[in-house]
Design brief:
homodimer, 146 residues, alpha+beta, 6 strands, globular
Chain lengths: 146, 146
Amino acid sequence: MEAANQAFYDAVENSDLDALEAIVLTGPLAESVAVVHPGWPVLRGRREVMRSYALIMANTEYIQFFLTDVEVAVDGDTALVTCTENILTGGPAEDDGSAGSLVGGLVVATNVFRHTPEGWRLWVHHGSPVLADESDDPEAAGDPDA
Amino acid sequence: MEAANQAFYDAVENSDLDALEAIVLTGPLAESVAVVHPGWPVLRGRREVMRSYALIMANTEYIQFFLTDVEVAVDGDTALVTCTENILTGGPAEDDGSAGSLVGGLVVATNVFRHTPEGWRLWVHHGSPVLADESDDPEAAGDPDA
């Protein structure tokens, strides 16, 4: 199960749209596939989701995910993975050929997979930016400007 | 199915912790219940989730959800709801007794429910702020400062 989750991130990291095509759910639930990229509205349906990843891959020079806090729960044909994505992204190379600047980011994700005859396939991916420290103060933590 | 989703938001809107207790999944999957409040890290486990709602309710004078873009997919014992939460929140009343200031917010949510003998119960709620207009430019839309 963790393998399917890792394969999803590997596909994005490797900018491998074919690998991602193989991981995202097909069949009767394809129209309900849902993805939220950090800060984005909901994208619904396999076609719209794949289109967004094609755009992201085309506009991303370099991206690497270090996953932490990975927790998995499996119940029958459904699996839930929550994790923290420690993301390192790079801009385009400089004119002199040197590597572009790197930027780090912290995103939390809930990923839901369904089991199919071909294996576990991604049904839902919701990633969102962590905007505050873990805190007991919901007003402070709930404020996007905090 | 929409009824369970609405009951979840009604419970928060009414600051009704007992009603929320009845909606959040119990049983073998209780430890895997996962909630992400907008901008927060992942909260995992029914106990931690309920504690967060108790804190939020204690610190929220007024909150109202207008749900739009509600889309539901049901497959066997699992249901996925995506929706946009148009949130109106109010601060504490002023010293002169007049109502506190109201603030609007836009959050997108993916909610996953499991069917139990008692009905549909919430397994996953992930809410995240929408930080950019819907756009074909993933770099602009992915930038929390955009």
